[in-house]
Amino acid sequence: LVKADRKRNLNKYIPDVARAIMETLGEIADESPPKRPRYDKEDEELLEKVNSEEVTEMTFRDCLTQHVEQ
């Protein structure tokens, strides 16, 4: 019962969290590269995927949902 309540509570926040992540990454990705601090290769790849819409808000929702369901 406690685990089910925890899942339900976490699931409730997934849409807002996914939206916030995308807004933040979108703002970072939109910055011109000279203004951007140096990110490691993995972070740069994520920002490129956000720019190309290969990674979307739904991607984060799916990942967060999958993690909560574990």
Automatic annotation (TrEMBL):
<dbReference type="GO" id="GO:0016853">
    <property type="term" value="F:isomerase activity"/>
</dbReference>
<keyword id="KW-0413">Isomerase</keyword>
<protein>
    <submittedName>
        <fullName>Topoisomerase VI</fullName>
    </submittedName>
</protein>
